[in-house]
Write a structure and sequence with these properties.
alpha+beta; seven-stranded mixed sheet; six-stranded antiparallel sheet
């Protein structure tokens, strides 16, 4: 549909809305927010989104309204972000346009839509189970009918079997086809079409023609093909729903990192609880130990340590004092703090990370799987061929309309894309099983195809290239000093103190240890902590983390810590480079630490102190250069980059939000699964292309027979079964052999 077609459709839609306004399920004007002078915004949940075409249609039509300044739909999260010039009261008019297209709308709340998503997933699963059960039973009856075409089955018995098939298939189609029928009806009612319209027509037509044949006592009925086709289509729909659910869970997990309410200090000295979206700059938050910050701000009183992995990706806590900048989602690990709010709600850094993830998922949702691209051209050709067959036999061949329709339906059935529907899923199943034996779990249905195209690998440092935990690498030579320091460390949960305690596990905790938030540990005669806390004027700057220990006024002793590389990190990097892939390192850590890790792993290109936005920007630059980038990361700050990359991996030790943003996760301390994943993906891509070619060849070779009216159910069964068995057998070759044990 071009620009002129869109303008005409928009005009007709507005005219119809003027005659008969679409009823809305809520007053969206109450949910609109004023974003400035004469500027309002609204976040809506759009139910009924099936593909990128729906996204394009909504955005394009809303853009026809000159008052609308922004209309962005995220397919994965079903979120419509709308902005316009005007008053909040105009929200219903803008929402009404989307509702007139046949979509259901609700105010967007990412934390409240889980129940609806689960309900839809259960509905699809039940429909899939019903279709599968019916298809198996109808196929058993059909095998008997096909076997009786040699004359061994009487007409009465064959008709009985047809009616038994109808009794099983028709209720199953009516129930299992509801996801497609509802979507098609809503689209047609709105004066548009979608992919569910031809599906619904084909399934319904096959059932009606088969019912006519059974009523007339004819030889041929196609109940088996109708319900089997619906079964395969539901498999694809369910897998797609699960894949999009991963993206929605990623966003929700990120949004769950902020609290719903926060405690603020009132001007009279009292306290009150307030929703975080109602906080305004200038409010003073009281943040207790163990509490998560609900807004960005500056520390106004107190000293503590924070879990800042959301921003830096580093596991080491961040020491803060008055004047330090802190962000929503960080966790206070030490003493209570007072924080003056500088940004809240949609203006926080955490909200920006959520928007980065959504924007990246939006870009990835435009990626169309190879099978979908083939099916997009395949379906119109098949339907056009069936229509021409009907017209040819009815107008030129001298057949009655019902016989001509039967031949046309045979064309639809013989070209039923069962093998085409199996071509990709069966390879995915075999590849997923192969990768699972290597400790890799695929999370996205298009991951294999995208992984096969990778030519550039970007690695995070902490928790990805390294093990993600500090280890003691340098200690004083005096064992008594080490044991005394370890006795203090055993009383703390600080990561460096725990690393020191792990190095000397047989040392008992000291008595009377007092922890000074953000500084260190102390007893009556010794201290363990930062250089300043232990009176060290010139700490060593060698890129390592450190703890200092002093006792009874004696000389200070330094304990140095480093995050060790994964055991096979250097070998894996070398193996990736040997396969022609370029490898680089992106980290939020300090330059000296990143430089040392890159040198040890054999990586020439690296960048330190990279924020989440900087990582996404770097990936965008590589994509603009034509690179197909695989991102491997584990930190919360890596979630936007994982979603923005062409493909992505994450270790199972990563945060839940990070894993949900990735295409696959891998287990263990080895990095070698990244190589196995890429190798399997490349083999799977070759097999998918072979399967698609085989499926199309088999189906198209039977089309001339169907057009000539020579196809019987037996011929159709042989063609469809043979092509399906062939693609399954070809895919099973991927599972042969054993998974790789490491870089090779």
């Amino acid at each position: 549909m071009g620009a002129a077609g869109l303008d005409g459709f928009y005009a007709r839609l507005e005219e119809r809305r003027a005659r008969r306004p679409e009823p809305l399920e809520a007053d969206f004007a109450t949910h609109a927010r004023e974003a400035g002078k004469d500027q309002c915004t609204l976040e809506l949940l759009v139910d009924g989104l099936d593909c990128a075409a729906c996204v394009w249609l909504i955005e394009s039509l809303l853009a026809r309204n000159p008052a609308v300044t922004k209309a962005r739909v995220h397919l994965s999260t079903r979120r419509l972000s709308l902005a316009w010039h005007g008053a909040p009261a105009e929200a219903n008019a803008h929402a009404g346009l989307v509702a007139a297209l046949g979509f259901r709308l609700a105010p967007y709340d990412a934390l409240a839509v889980t129940a609806e998503d689960d309900r839809e997933a259960r509905e699809l699963l039940r429909a899939l189970a019903v279709a599968g059960f019916a298809a198996a039973n109808v196929m058993l009856l059909s095998v008997a009918v096909w076997s009786g075409h040699d004359g061994s089955m009487g007409e009465a018995t064959r008709t009985l079997f047809h009616w038994l098939s109808a009794a099983i298939a028709l209720p199953a189609v009516a129930y299992a086809g509801q996801p497609f029928f509802r979507s098609a009806f809503a689209a047609l009612r709105a004066g548009r079409t979608n992919m569910d319209v031809p599906i619904s027509i084909g399934v319904t037509l096959a059932c009606l023609v088969s019912l006519h044949e059974a009523w007339a006592g004819e030889q041929h009925a196609y109940f088996d093909s109708a319900i089997t086709l619906l079964f395969f289509l539901l498999i694809g729909r369910y897998l797609d729903r699960r894949a999009r659910g991963r993206a929605r869970h990623a966003v929700r997990a990120l949004m769950a990192l902020t609290t719903r309410t926060a405690t603020i200090l009132l001007p009279d000295g009292g306290t009150a609880s307030r929703r975080v979206d109602a906080l305004v700059p200038g409010d003073v938050l009281l943040v207790a130990a163990g509490e998560r910050l609900g807004a960005d701000g500056l520390v106004s009183e107190g000293a503590s340590t924070l879990d800042a992995s959301l921003v830096t990706g580093e596991s080491l806590p961040l020491a803060v004092a008055p004047g330090s900048r802190v962000f929503a989602g960080m966790v206070n690990l030490g003493a209570a703090l007072r924080v003056r709010v500088t940004a809240s709600g949609e203006r926080t850094l955490l909200a920006e990370i959520v928007r980065l993830v959504e924007a990246a998922e939006r870009g990835r949702s435009r990626f169309v799987a190879l099978a979908d691209r083939v099916a997009r051209a395949y379906a119109p050709v098949v339907h056009a061929t069936a229509l021409l067959t009907f017209l040819g036999w009815f107008l030129l061949g001298g057949l009655s309309w019902d016989r001509a329709l039967l031949v046309a339906t045979a064309v639809l059935i013989i070209t039923c894309p069962c093998a085409l529907a199996l071509a990709v899923p069966v390879v995915q199943v075999v590849a997923s099983t192969r990768l699972l034996r290597s400790g890799v779990l695929l999370l996205s249905p298009t991951a294999l195809e995208r992984l096969a195209q990778i030519d550039h690998v970007v690695l995070d440092k902490t928790g990805t290239l390294t093990l993600g935990r500090p280890e003691l690498v340098d200690a004083p030579s005096d064992p008594e000093v080490c044991r005394s320091a370890a006795a203090l460390a055993a009383a703390s949960r600080h990561p460096l103190a725990r690393a020191l305690a792990r190095a000397l596990p047989d040392v008992a905790p000291a008595d009377g240890v007092v922890e000074h938030a953000g500084q260190g540990l102390a007893t009556h005669d010794s201290r363990l902590g930062s250089a300043a806390f232990c009176g060290v004027a010139a700490p060593v700057d060698d890129g390592r983390s450190e703890l200092w220990f002093v006792r009874d006024g004696g000389p200070p002793h330094r304990f140095a810590f480093a995050d060790r590389l994964r055991p096979d990190a250097a070998a894996t990097v070398a193996a990736l480079q040997a396969r022609g892939l370029q490898v680089e390192l992106l980290s939020g850590d300090r330059p000296a630490v990143v430089a040392e890790a890159a040198r040890a792993a054999g990586i020439a290109t690296w960048q330190a102190e990279a924020t989440p936005a900087a990582k996404v920007a770097r990936l965008a630059t590589l994509a603009a250069e034509g690179r197909k980038v695989m991102m491997v990361g584990d930190g919360l700050n890596d979630a936007p980059a994982l979603a923005a990359a062409h493909a992505s991996l994450s270790p199972t030790s990563a945060a839940e939000a990070t894993q949900n943003a990735a295409d696959a996760v891998f287990q263990g301390e080895a990095l070698a699964p990244a190589i196995e994943t890429l190798d399997v993906a490349r083999r799977a891509d070759r097999l998918v292309r072979q399967n698609l070619a085989l499926a199309l060849l088999y189906n198209l070779s039977a089309v001339p027979l169907a057009i000539l009216g020579e196809v019987t159910p037996l011929v159709a069964a042989v063609a469809m079964s043979s092509s399906s068995l062939l693609v399954i057998g070809n895919a099973l070759r991927l599972g042969a052999g054993h998974p790789a044990k490491g870089p090779r």
